[in-house]
Amino acid sequence: MLLGTFDLHTFLFVLFALTACLFAAGVLFSSNIVRMAFHLVLSLGSSAGLFFLAGAEFVGAMQLMIYVGGTLVLLVFGVMLTAQHRFLEMRTNAGEWVLSLVVGGALLMVLLQAAFSVSQWNTPNTERSQLAVDESKAATPIGAALAGVRVDKLQQKDAHLRAGMSGYLMPFVIVSMHLLVVLVGAAYLARPRMAVRNPKGGG
Amino acid sequence: MAEFFAQYMPAGVAYTLTALISAALLLGVVGVGALFFIWAERKVAGRIQDRLGPTRTGGKFGWLQSLADGIKLLTKEDIAPADADKTLFRLAPYVSLAPSYAALLALPFADGWVGWEINTAMFFLLAVLGLEVFGVILAGYASGSKWSLFGGMRQAAQVVSYEVPLGMCGVIPVFLCGTMSLTTIGNMQAGWFTNWLIFHDPFTFLVFWVYFTCAVASVNRAPFDLAEAESELVAGFHTEYSGLRWSFFFMAEYNSMLVVSGLAAVAFFGGWNGPVPIFASWKAAGGGWEIVANLAGCINFIMKAVLGVMLMIWVRWTLPRLRIDQVITTCLKYCVPLAAFCFVGALSWQLFDLPSPNDWVPAERAGRAAVREPWARGTTGSTQSSAGTSARLAQGSEVHR
Amino acid sequence: MATANREQIIELDVRTDELLVNMGPQHPSTHGVLRLVLKTDGEIVTHVEPHIGYLHRCAEKIGENLTPRQWIPYTDRMDYLAAMNMNLGWSLCVEKLLQYELPEKARHLRVIIAELGRIASHLVGMGAYGLDLGTFSPFLYAFREREKILNLFEEACGARLTNSYITPGGATADLPPGWLEKCEAFLDQFEPVIAEYHALLTTNAIFIQRTAGIGVMSAEMAIDYGCTGPVLRGSGVDHDLRRDGEERYTEMYDGYAFEVIVQKDGHYPRDHDYPPVPPEAVLGDCWHRFYVRMLEVVQAIDIIRQGIEFYRSAEGDWGHPIKLNTKLPKGEVYLETECPRGQMGFYLVSDGSAIPWRTRARSSCFCNLSVTEELCRGCLLADVPAIVGSLDIVMGEIDR
């Protein structure tokens, strides 16, 4: 009867959640930046798996593409490009630990508070086994809206209410611009400053 | 399939069983695919070069050659260099193989024959394929060899250049069909071969070649095989690997070739729909006939994908390798504007309802190209896909709540 | 503010640590056992240092303990891709010391064999160059044709690679009956095949991108470094020992009509339908060096055809090898010949005995290789095989 209660969905959820946490801790405790990146990849990949489990395939794929694929490759690329030893072997001092604990702890508090304030999440889902068999074959409306199509507005008769069909592309554009600016900035910071004697002798 | 099993056993077990069967089948595709493609590559390369290729192992055509190679690789010693970052060095081949295996999950082999039916399959595939390079970069870094490091760096530089045009090429079929679901994209190209997206308009025809170029770059094949350029970097990122771990990189490469070719087959060449709609009526008949039609479709799809792989093999044995700056130039300077131009062109074609070759085919679809965005046709909700999708959307969200 | 030695902060591009890489002696594209020590800044090569000597076999010292004919097999093993031409160089050098007059028929035999050797050598150079650039198939197409030349060599002398065929006094044997017809059949079959090489390499867009404008060597630089052969002519210097060499050598080519393959007044000799020079190519770059080799192959075919005609109508004997223990007259001689890779010189000092007192070989590849450092400075890592490959070196000849 154990098999009957065995639920792949739960199992995978626990698996992904555990790996995500484990490798997140791995990021914290490794000093080599490439290992950090590797752990981050596994951690973010696991959270992408959580998204897939929740039926948010678009966000999951987005997570894979942007965080795991794009940003991390760029990070590693950047590390290799600027290969300076202080970046390769990072040492964290006590002050930084304290600061990061404060910031991280505060963020955790906010997240926990937010999580427990959602009423649906507090009541147990009785039909979990049913949910497991239901393969999600569709993106949620919010997922489609993120991609730029408001499916919920398609059937809207009133032209005024149908406005905003383009969905939520704007945040994505802003985020991508932000990433671009960060990358340019990182490249700028990576430029070494070298002291050379001015051959002409003067300003 | 899960529903079928659920009639006989508890839901959880049914679901697990389905997952295991799918995974095993896909693993079979990876294994058999790699064996076949390695043999085919040697055979095709041999013929291209006026040689015979393998002739003895396993009979007349040497078709057991890859298996013999596999056994040889199994028996080889697994060496990690002294300077290597041992953990990452050992993990890198798996990191490389896992995404290319995961990509197969969302690739439909026929209508409904897919490991994991997701709505954003196209996006998922492109995202997951982009992850494969991480294994390469890790291998390059962890090997503790300068040649490997060069390979890893080149791979990183290459990935940022081809990902952009590849994504843009992938977006065009998505916009033309109005869905990211590969199953739907494939089904919308049913009918005569004129309904395939590549023949939709001149821009899609052009963009397929851009896609193919970027896809070759994404799977590290000549002329874009810079990360393992044997005349420059000895063997690039896998210089220090031996035995089974080395063969994992190999399997990942061949599997990725199959995936990108399969994606091209679905997105541009009608997927499992043959050039002539022979099995359309069988499929409509349902039951056993439908399975036969799907089997034919599966064979169709695999043939198209294998054709794509053969094209890559042909290219590899013909062209010299590009230089790293030329790869970046090709991808960013030529492929990106071309893809963007095709993107605008294909969408304009759609918007202004310009003629498509399918218009002149005496088909059941009353002379209009089947591939039309539902709301561009002006009859919102009349098509099954749109209404069905929204219905399922609503249903799905309810279930999750 | 304006003090004389004020330090100024300038910002450079993103740069990496310099990496010291050993390319070779075991590396796929160093043509044997060349070792290049590269200093790289990312993909950019800032410094190249060729190291040689991994194939040193004391050939010259051995030559001082053997009679000239006994040393012939050692010359095979210098430039093992053009063994016939090496035999020829040494034989002519010894004949010069002996004041030996060669029969007419032996002269034409030598021209045929030497030019066949040139084709075989350039085929390897061409195929291996494709390999350096990452394309495999032309290499096998080249070897397919080279095999046929080696078959011809085998019929003539019994050996395929290290032939020891041409010896002081002529050759070890006359050409066997029917050989000329086979040779002609080969040439007829081979000539159209060259178009394939041009399609796969010379006019291939990627090939042009990889070679045109890469490793540009000016005529002055080529002369300064003592470059010879196709490397020199690729830079536009009109110099070919078959026309400009010593009389002892050029008289071998008396009566032959051929033009030196070099770009003059902006174009190459136009006696054949050659593919056009792409606009990207700069005189003296890798593409031109490769192109000169390709044209020399066509030209060699012409010369062999003439040689076959001359040989058929020639009077007299095919020459006879000198006796193994022939006493050499006292004196010293030096003779350079135009080998496929450049001017190969042999120097011989005799004290009057049958064994030379001093033998020395002047290597063409050694000088050609010496430009590597200057050509590769500032190029990309992938250009290093492209440049070294375009010099077409054979380590056996450099190290001897």
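qc> Chain A touches chain C through 18 residues (CB under 8 Å).
qc> done
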